[in-house]
Design goal:
This protein is α/β, with parallel strands linked by helices. It has three domains: 230 residues, 3-Layer(aba) Sandwich (Rossmann fold), CATH 3.40.50; 174 residues, P-loop containing nucleotide triphosphate hydrolases (Rossmann fold, 3-Layer(aba) Sandwich); 73 residues, no CATH class. It is 33% helix and 25% strand. It is built from 17 helices and 24 strands. Strands 6-9-10-3-11-12 form a six-stranded mixed β-sheet, with helices on both faces. A six-stranded mixed β-sheet has the order 18-21-22-15-23-24, with helices on both faces. It is elongated, with a radius of gyration of 25 Å. The two termini are 38 Å apart. The structure holds adenosine-5'-diphosphate (ADP) and magnesium ion.
Length: 496
């Protein structure tokens, strides 16, 4: 793949990327969230069209217009989300779309023989007659791999394959990958995990913000080289931090456990505290338990074990509305889903979750004028660009939507602010503004829990950094830690 460029509205996802893979290789493509890995692979597999660039196979330029073309050229892809038909068996799913036919009739016996042979060859053991919906996640992935191979894939793309696997299942996957490449297949292995690229690949291409920043042989790599290349660093932003003097403990989490949809354990015994006057950053590549952590604290999900306390009060069993009343502000990860009602006006949105605030109502009845004044105040003090407070949230830019949420949440002067990806997708100016508000809150003696996959943001703002990896804190860093230190932890390498 040469000079590949791809833009989405407002984002350059790929900015002239080259990826060269040789036959029989396991090529690792390493990068943090949003680096462009999936976009690059979706182009190769014919799911996205590129804006610029060329793809060559065995020296010849090819045109991949859709995934049928890609499959025809011997490409196979296993996505982060699976595509099996739930009420078909494993066998039926594998042969779907590539049934060997005998005068137009499916030759079931022949198909079964082929699939059994394939299973033996690659060592991905699985019962062929189980219904797909009854399979544990790790086995669903095996079916996807077998399906791709059965269709004749010579180049297999695995996008973050171990994200849904237990360590044991990952080990088995690695064994099959070795068998496949020994038999002449080529594997492109996408990951953000340093140990995995070191263990299974023979070459590594590292991407960051839509560009390839390094490409090297695995034998020449080590954790430091990889961690530095993966995380990198943009300009360091300067904020006015007052002296670091954390006060009383506001949030105390002990041995927190939670289950998730696809893994049995999403949180595996987290313990930490946030004090008044500090920003505690939770860093981690997305999907390592961040969402579950925030949801447990905010009463959106029930922990399976451990305790969460606000000051001394146990809040494990409280509903979100009750948690918010305990002087907690919440800037949610998905602002369009949980932060705003897009079809409501700015004025209506600024009172969401706080309709019981006494300053909006008189003897239990809402006073519209007070709400409208409050909305105007937020618009003014946060420089929200809009023609008025009756504009629907839907019609604001992402940055302005976020200002409304942060303004609303900070207006109640909460003791503790939970900020989850507070600047994701925002332009530079809005990002800096929102970040400066977090710093101001900290300087004013509030506690801030900053959960972010933006590592610049974590390094710039946090007094302490907790690194979440596979549902556990793998290490803690202090302000001033290097990118290398953070990168190693993010990639799953604990300090020695
Ligand atoms: N379908 C899409 N629409 C808009 N933006 C997208 C789309 N897919 C990816 N992006 C953006 O492109 C960038 C690269 O994303 P992606 O390729 O998914 O990264 P990675 O797989 O390395 O985490 C991100 O900024 C992401 O938000
Ligand atoms: Mg991806």
């Amino acid at each position: 793949m040469l000079g590949i460029r791809k833009t989405f509205p407002g984002v350059v996802a790929l900015d002239g990327v080259d990826l060269v893979v040789g036959q029989g290789e396991v090529m690792g493509v390493l990068g943090e969230n949003g680096a462009g890995k999936s976009t690059l692979m979706n182009i190769l597999y014919g799911l996205y069209t590129m804006d610029e660039g060329t793809i060559e196979m065995q020296g010849k330029k090819v045109h991949i217009r859709n995934s049928a073309d890609a499959i025809g050229m011997g490409l196979g892809m296993v996505h982060q989300a699976f595509t099996l038909v739930p009420n078909l068996t494993v066998m039926e799913n594998i042969i779907l779309g590539s049934e060997p036919s005998n005068m137009g009739v499916i030759d079931v016996k022949d198909a079964r023989r082929q699939v059994t042979e394939l299973v033996k060859q690659v060592g991905l053991d699985i019962g062929l007659d189980t219904l797909a919906e009854d399979l544990p996640t790790g086995f669903k992935q095996r079916v996807e791999i077998l399906k791709a191979l059965h269709r004749g894939a010579k180049i297999l793309i695995l996008d973050e394959p171990t994200a849904v696997l237990t360590p044991l299942e990952a080990e088995e996957l690695f064994k099959s990958i070795r068998r496949m490449t020994k038999a002449g297949s080529t594997v492109i292995f996408i990951t953000h995990k340093l140990k995995e690229v070191m263990a299974i690949t023979n070459r590594i291409t590292i991407m960051r913000r839509g560009k390839v920043v390094a490409s090297l042989e695995t034998k020449d790599a080590n954790f430091d080289i990889l961690a530095n290349a993966m995380v990198g660093r943009q300009v360091q932003r300067k904020f006015n931090f007052g002296p670091y003097k954390p006060g009383e403990t506001l949030l105390k989490v002990e041995d927190l456990k939670a289950a998730s949809k696809h893994k049995t354990e999403a949180l595996n015994g987290l313990s930490f505290a946030v004090g008044a006057g500090e920003i505690v950053g939770v860093a981690g590549v997305e999907g390592n338990g961040q969402t579950e952590l925030v949801e447990c604290i905010m009463g959106l999900m029930k922990p399976t074990g451990g305790t969460i306390r606000l000051k001394e009060k146990l809040i494990n069993k409280l509903h979100t509305s009750e948690v918010l009343k305990l002087s907690v502000g919440h800037v949610p990860e998905d602002r369009a889903l949980n932060g705003l009602i897009l079809d409501f006006s700015i004025a209506e949105n600024v009172v969401l979750g706080s309709t019981e605030r006494t300053d909006f109502s008189k003897r239990g009845v809402m006073v519209p004028k007070r709400i409208r004044d409050f909305a105007r105040k937020i618009v003014q003090s946060f420089s929200v660009s809009t023609s008025g407070i009756d504009v629907k949230a839907r019609n604001l830019s992402g940055g302005n939507q976020q200002k409304i949420i942060v303004g609303r949440e900070l207006a109640g002067q909460p003791h503790l602010l939970i900020a989850h990806q507070p600047t994701r997708g925002l332009d530079v100016a809005s990002t800096e503004y929102i970040q400066s508000l977090l710093v101001d809150s900290r300087n004013a003696g509030r506690g801030v829990l900053l959960v972010s996959a933006d590592f610049d943001e974590i390094l710039d703002l946090s007094d302490r950094i907790l690194v979440l990896y596979e549902g556990k804190f793998i290490g803690e860093l202090q302000r001033g830690a290097s990118i290398g230190e953070l990168g190693r932890l993010l990639g799953g390498i604990a300090a020695s």
